[in-house]
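Our consortium's second objective concerns turning raw sequence data into structural hypotheses that experimental partners can test. To show how far this objective has progressed, the report includes one record in full. It was chosen at random from the queue rather than selected for favorable results. The single chain below, 349 residues long, was entered without modification.
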Amino acid sequence: MSERKGYRVAVVGATGAVGQQMIQTLENRDFPVSELLLLSSSRSAGTKVTYKGEEVTVQEAKPESFEGIDIALFSAGGSVSKALAPEAVKRGAIVVDNTSAFRMDENIPLVVPEVNESDLHSHNGIIANPNCSTIQMVVALEPLRQNFGLEKIIVSTYQAVSGAGAAAVQELEEQTQAILNGDQYEPKILPVKSAGKHYQIAFNAIPQIDNFVDNGFTYEEMKMINETKKIMHMPDLQVAATCVRLPVGTGHSESVYFELSQKGVSAAQVKELLADAPGVVLQDDPEQQVYPMPAFCVGKNDVFVGRIRKDLDNDAGFHMWVVSDNLLKGAAWNSVQIAESLIKLGIVK
């Protein structure tokens, strides 16, 4: 660790759901902050946020805001990141960006510390935080890839509404109440706010997250496919994804089918490896009905894995169930964890 006692940290998008979690995570981790600068759009500037018992006033994010900042955590939308992240870097800050703005830029590392922490050494001022659903999957798969090799992944996600923002969670709650009361409620946000059609999420499952691309997949699905290959440095890895939104507030779940390179591996070996894997909590006892569920992962930094079983037809194939808090490990905690790694590795002086 650096001998330095504290770092000037900025949080961009401080009033949003992920920004709030970033602030809380900095506090929970007792991150070495000498000064905390909270930034947002002009609309939210002036808001008061409590950090370690003291009120901090949110300021409007401008290029000059980053003078003297060591680490800037961004979660205010891709357009804000594209405009302000380079400005922060110009002024000497290292940016950890939680949007999709830079993830697939070949010159910008896309990092999950349990998987590819060493990629941080190749940063040019900006580090990208992967998509929430990608993060939890690669944390669970990386120990297996390292030990047995990995050939193929087919994932179906069951994603929480908070991934679409605080307004989507509010819509879920109001919509649920309206339906229970027998009232009419017109959906306005999901599956995509800017799309032509909106569907109810209460008592429903929507097989669309983000817009569709020409190949029939959605952007969310393509994020999982492309980001996984980049993080694992496996451009030829076979990956397919189907992403579905469920009426769950917080906590993404995933059904993951994967094929190992090594034949003859047992489910017991996979469980044993994951039981000791960094960032993973194994919850796998079918006889006692022990398995991960989103309701019980909220507020926890770990990735929870269970329902591990060997495929019945393919000796190299396995199935597992992966759950994590999408606002924490899927966003805020992974960002702060990257910042901790930057200090640990001596990258931030």
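The partners drew two points from this record. DSSP finds eight helices and 14 strands in the chain. The mean pLDDT is 97. Both points have been shared with the crystallography group to help prioritize constructs.
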